[in-house]
């Protein structure tokens, strides 16, 4: 059986502005990573301004627009709130519009934000709608190096959180990362073996591998304090939680889709 | 006709093109008519197993023979609304996250209160904040844990000292790195509860949801590791508990404190067949899995929700503010 193709992962987007990822030149420009940010309806994590600035496309899911309107000035207290709001203006607000405050919608609309009212579609979650929008309107030449960073997808109502994680499984060919103040999570599809580059200054040491939705008969890792070695994992049995990253590259191969999670350092 | 099978709950039977799905009141007994020929298996007969077991599961017991399990969130009702001794006895476990607003209510009526390590900090700091009209020292001595358990690397020394002086048992388990804090607390409670029948034990857990994602998943795994114990994880926004596949479930909805948003999640393994009543969008022998359909943002439409599934499911319902 041929070896699985390798997928690499990096959280360099979390690095502070003073050490941004190097701008692409020449051939690299074609492979340059581009970011889109999606904001769901929960309190912004502290690194929201950093990610927003890095992104080429910013979409709020319904009440996420309230969170940007209220939260960005809070996270940038040294600056004038009105200037912050103009600078941190979403490109689109998408969803069924039952949570966004009318005055917030009006404010951004008058600044040019696209308002996409999806209220007829009750079958997909807000995040699902936003991912679809972004993949149809990619900020770069195509979707191959697009990373979608999602704020506000974890915590809060549990069914929302699970619906958001399900979006990772349903769009398994798209790089989607869910971020909170405490953790970052993304899918490791079973179709690939994975190389996760750890940015030690902003993430770790606590990590985990979760067989979300289906058991894994065999997972193998390197780079962790407690590596898996052809180990089976399932709810009701063993999960890898409260593990520790020991090396700068963690490798993972599994017969099942896994959710990778790593803690974020408090000063990120 | 399956003459021998009657049920108080409507369930889907067989394959779609052979089903006659009868909806009826859950309060009346009725006989289910199966439109099966004599050659086709009737899933409701004990000698015809309903589904082939999947690799990860034990063979399911025939659906008609499964015992019923009932669930109620009466413990969330305000003190004035609860008739004496109506709510089951329960234990409270506090993990290391900010207390939800109803923490004092649950603590008051608990039989035993356990803090997992840094959960003791949260009680020490958080209870006075939730009861601002009372003197802090009064609150702290009134809301004193029975036990603080775990590896003691998060509880502040002065907090541990304070409670120890008041008689709180300190159960140091720093040598056991293989189980989570919640696991240790659940094991402690089951080891120390009277009688051999643990099926009446109910453990309410605060601080298990949100926060670090691997912690949350480890906490949800504890529900799966102790399927015979009623463990409810609560936050300000919602509560969750396990619906083991070994039972059919009757969930009584306390509409004054919970709902309307709810969901059913096959966290550990796909569900080939789940059936519900009482929801806005009921499942009808429906397949659920990550990567496909899971029931989220559903709505409770009736006071009683019934769930039957071939897989363990996590039930979740929103809590009213």
UniProtKB/TrEMBL annotation, chain B:
Keyword DNA-binding recorded: no
Superkingdom in the source lineage: Eukaryota
GO molecular function list: amino acid binding; ATP binding; carboxyl- or carbamoyltransferase activity; kinase activity; thiamine binding; thiamine diphosphokinase activity
Alphabetical UniProt keywords: ATP-binding, Cytoplasm, Kinase, Nucleotide-binding, Transferase
Main location: cytoplasm
Official protein name in the record: thiamine diphosphokinase
Signal peptide bounds: none
Native source species: Aegilops tauschii subsp. strangulata (Goatgrass)
Family under the similarity heading: Belongs to the thiamine pyrophosphokinase family.
Region: Disordered, residue numbers: 42-69
Coiled coil region boundaries: none
Biological role: Catalyzes the phosphorylation of thiamine to thiamine pyrophosphate (TPP). TPP is an active cofactor for enzymes involved in glycolysis and energy production. Plant leaves require high levels of TPP for photosynthesis and carbohydrate metabolism.
């Amino acid at each position: 059986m041929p070896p699985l193709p390798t997928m690499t992962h990096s959280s360099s987007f979390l690095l502070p502005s003073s050490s941004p990822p190097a701008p692409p030149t020449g051939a690299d420009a074609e492979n340059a990573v581009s970011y889109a940010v999606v904001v769901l309806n929960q309190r912004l994590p502290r690194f929201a301004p950093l990610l927003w600035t890095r992104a080429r496309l910013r979409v709020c899911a319904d009440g996420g627009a309230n969170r940007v309107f209220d939260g960005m000035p809070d996270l940038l207290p040294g600056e004038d709130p009105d200037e912050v709001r103009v600078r941190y203006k979403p490109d689109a607000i998408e969803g069924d519009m039952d949570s966004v405050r009318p005055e917030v919608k009006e404010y951004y609309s008058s600044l040019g934000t696209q308002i996409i009212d999806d209220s007829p579609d009750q079958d997909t979650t807000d995040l699902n709608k936003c991912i679809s929008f972004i993949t149809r309107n990619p900020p770069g030449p195509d979707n191959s190096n697009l990373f979608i960073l999602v704020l506000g997808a974890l915590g809060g109502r549990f069914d929302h959180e699970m619906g958001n994680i399900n979006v990772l499984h349903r769009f398994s060919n798209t790089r989607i990362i869910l971020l909170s103040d405490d953790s970052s999570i993304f899918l490791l599809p079973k179709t690939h073996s994975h190389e996760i580059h750890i940015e030690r200054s902003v993430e770790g040491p606590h990590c985990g591998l979760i067989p979300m939705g289906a058991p894994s008969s065999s997972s193998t890792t390197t780079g962790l304090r407690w590596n898996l070695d052809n180990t089976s994992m399932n709810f009701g049995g063993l999960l890898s939680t409260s593990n520790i990253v020991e090396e700068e590259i963690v490798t993972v191969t599994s017969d099942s889709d896994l959710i990778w999670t790593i803690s974020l350092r408090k000063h990120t | 006709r399956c003459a021998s099978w009657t049920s108080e709950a409507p369930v889907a039977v067989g394959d779609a093109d052979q089903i006659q799905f009868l909806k009826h009141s859950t309060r009346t007994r009725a006989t289910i008519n199966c439109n099966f020929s004599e050659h086709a298996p009737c899933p409701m007969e004990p000698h015809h197993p309903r589904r082939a077991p999947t690799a990860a599961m034990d063979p399911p017991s025939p659906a008609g023979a499964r015992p019923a399990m009932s669930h109620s969130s009466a413990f969330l009702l305000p003190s004035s609304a609860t008739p004496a001794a109506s709510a089951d006895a329960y234990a409270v476990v506090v993990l290391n996250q900010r207390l939800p607003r109803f923490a004092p209510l649950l603590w008051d009526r608990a039989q035993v209160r356990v803090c997992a390590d840094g959960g003791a900090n949260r009680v020490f700091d958080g209870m006075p904040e939730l009861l601002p009209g009372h003197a802090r020292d009064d609150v702290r001595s009134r809301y004193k844990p029975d036990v603080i358990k775990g590896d003691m690397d998060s509880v502040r020394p002065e907090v541990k000292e304070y409670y120890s002086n008041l008689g709180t048992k300190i159960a140091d388990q720093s040598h056991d790195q293989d189980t989570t804090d919640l696991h240790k607390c659940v094991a402690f409670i089951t080891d120390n509860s009277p009688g051999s029948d643990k099926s009446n034990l109910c453990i309410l857990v605060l601080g298990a949801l949100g926060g670090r994602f691997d912690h949350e998943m480890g906490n949800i795994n504890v529900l799966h590791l102790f399927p015979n114990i009623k463990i409810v994880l609560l936050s300000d926004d919602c509560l969750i508990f396990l619906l083991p596949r070994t039972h059919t479930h009757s969930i009584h909805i306390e509409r004054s404190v919970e709902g309307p948003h709810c969901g059913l999640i096959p966290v550990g393994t796909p569900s080939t067949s789940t059936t519900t009543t009482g929801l806005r969008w009921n499942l009808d022998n429906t397949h659920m899995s990550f990567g496909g359909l899971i029931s989220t943002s559903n709505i409770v439409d009736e006071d009683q929700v019934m769930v039957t599934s071939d897989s363990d499911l996590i039930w979740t319902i929103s809590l009213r503010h």
